[in-house]
Amino acid sequence: MEIFSSSSGRYCVGLTVFWAALVLSALYWRPGGTSPSAAVPFGLGIFRAGAPAGTAEFDLRDFGGTGNGVAVNTRAFGLAVEAIRRRGGGRLNVGAGTWLTGPFNLTSHMTLFLAEGAVILGLEDETKWPLMPPLPSYGYGREHKGPRYGSLIHGQHLKNVVITGHNGTIDGQGRAWWTKHRRRLLNYTRGPLVQIMWSEDIVISNITLQNSPFWTLHPYVCRNVTISGVTILAPVLEAPNTDGIDPDSCENVLIENCYISVGDDGVAIKSGWDQYGIRYGRPSTDIVIRNLTVRSVLSAGVSIGSEMSGGVSNVLVEDLRVWDSRRAVRIKTARGRGGYVRNVTYRDLRFDRVRVGIVVTTTYNEHADGGFDPAALPLVENITFSGVRGRDVRVPVRIHGSEDIPIRGVTVRDMSVGLHVKRKHVFQCSYVEGRVVGPVSPEPCANLDVYDEAGRLVKQSSSQNATDMDYDL
Length: 473
Ligand SMILES: *[C@@H]1O[C@H](CO)[C@@H](O)[C@H](O)[C@H]1NC(C)=O
Ligand SMILES: *[C@@H]1O[C@H](CO)[C@@H](O)[C@H](O)[C@H]1NC(C)=O
Ligand SMILES: *[C@@H]1O[C@H](CO)[C@@H](O)[C@H](O)[C@H]1NC(C)=O
Ligand SMILES: *[C@@H]1O[C@H](CO)[C@@H](O)[C@H](O)[C@H]1NC(C)=O
Ligand SMILES: *[C@@H]1O[C@H](CO)[C@@H](O)[C@H](O)[C@H]1NC(C)=O
Ligand SMILES: *[C@@H]1O[C@H](CO)[C@@H](O)[C@H](O)[C@H]1NC(C)=O
Ligand SMILES: *[C@@H]1O[C@H](CO)[C@@H](O)[C@H](O)[C@H]1NC(C)=O
Ligand SMILES: *[C@@H]1O[C@H](CO)[C@@H](O)[C@H](O)[C@H]1NC(C)=O
Ligand SMILES: *[C@@H]1O[C@H](CO)[C@@H](O)[C@H](O)[C@H]1NC(C)=O
Prior knowledge:
Blueprint: H1 10-27, H2 36-39, E1 57-59, E2 68-72, H3 74-87, E3 90-94, E4 97-101, E5 104-105, E6 110-114, E7 118-122, E8 131-132, E9 148-149, E10 153-156, E11 159-165, E12 169-171, H4 174-182, E13 194-197, E14 200-205, E15 208-210, E16 217-220, E17 223-228, E18 231-233, E19 251-262, E20 267-269, H5 274-280, E21 284-296, E22 300-305, E23 312-332, E24 340-361, E25 379-393, E26 395-400, E27 407-419, E28 427-430, E29 432-441, E30 449-451, E31 457-459
One 2-acetamido-2-deoxy-beta-D-glucopyranose binds near residues 431 and 465.
């Protein structure tokens, strides 16, 4: 394509080396060097080369930008992005310094490059944040009816966008927003830090995202998204809804090598809310999450839901460490959601000082409005956990299905989790159909069939629907 021919060369080589390294590390990732296709349980083409975004170089200072932490750079970002758009693509260099700005949009074939020591700092004044219509699959601003604030860095209908650098920072100065939200001073839903909508071929790597007003990184209805080497930070208490990454109605997503410590879920895979999400009907599918370290004191390391009304399928969560957190991995849904969560594989999980390790909840009754259909029951099926380790965990497993929303096709194998306090009934189940295979400790609930390692049935469950929940633990 002609837009790549005005090459400055260096960045192309850098990117090629970067991708080669990514591919190699993927190939040699697992002990024994299992090939990625064997390691991934569905036909995911996740090792695509990231087409480099346009390579003509632009410097924010040439558009009137000043990185002194005081000057407002909204206009400079707008002009720079417009110049890149006119050129058909390019790389916007943001050098060391603190670049205060209101929200701005990206364009296609663009790289936003944050040098070491570069900080893009969001304006706290909400009147400088444009309002946008609610997301069609949510119907609602999420927190308030009607419009919502856009994101600090935003994009719609884009192709081939890269946000990267030498670990520069995008900081949303969320504290002012969290405080106003708590005091009920905001009339609209808070905006995410980075939100890319209806786009494809997105790479976000080697940067730090912090103090988002709301969800941090929100790819919405995107295809081919790679998020790698990103650090996401927010206070673990009193930073409401600062989820790390929310792939929402997205397809073919890779999230890897990230460190996330935030005030809500580390990662939450979503696909719309109740009747709005059902109507919009866009699933999240083919998602790989691996080598993440996550801390979530109030919520969970990696979640699916609770907004999953467009369906979520084919998810692999691998090599995940969750520490000092309330929950490690969680699937949350409710009556009225409709949709499904199916074909989810978790393997090589490590829980350190986590209250509840594995959680499935079917009573997450948070609804946009009274218009949801109570007969819209979500399906939760074919969920596998293997290689689960941990220490200092209170309740390793709590799978809470109900008569309306039973959990089907659960498999647990190779699990050994150390308890905070040794006691019984810490592997809790209700309305669960499935099996444990080989050694599993602590002792599994009676709802599950028991198989030996050779795959022979040892004991068939006669009590799939037994309920053994103890929320006091
Ligand atoms: C997404 O990536 C896959 C696998 O590399 C590729 O075959 C496909 O063309 C890409 N799709 C889009 C929309 O870019
Ligand atoms: C960014 O694009 C969106 C969607 O086209 C638009 O609503 C918004 O006003 C734009 N924001 C800015 C700062 O130009
Ligand atoms: C990532 O950041 C590090 C540290 O600043 C830098 O050395 C490295 O070149 C960056 N890698 C990429 C691919 O940008
Ligand atoms: C990037 O910066 C963050 C925040 O300063 C830091 O915690 C992280 O370790 C850095 N990552 C790398 C790879 O240097
Ligand atoms: C919210 O609405 C009220 C009543 O219209 C208005 O007084 C207030 O300034 C608004 N606050 C914000 C942050 O927009
Ligand atoms: C795993 O992710 C961390 C960042 O959290 C990174 O430092 C480390 O190199 C990654 N491991 C591999 C094998 O890529
Ligand atoms: C269960 O999910 C796994 C992993 O996605 C998949 O390979 C398998 O075909 C699924 N089995 C059923 C019965 O759906
Ligand atoms: C996912 O699950 C469904 C139903 O359980 C099954 O038909 C389908 O083959 C599975 N898909 C993959 C890719 O494993
Ligand atoms: C368990 O409950 C489901 C409905 O949720 C029902 O279809 C099934 O027959 C029950 N199983 C047993 C063994 O009672």
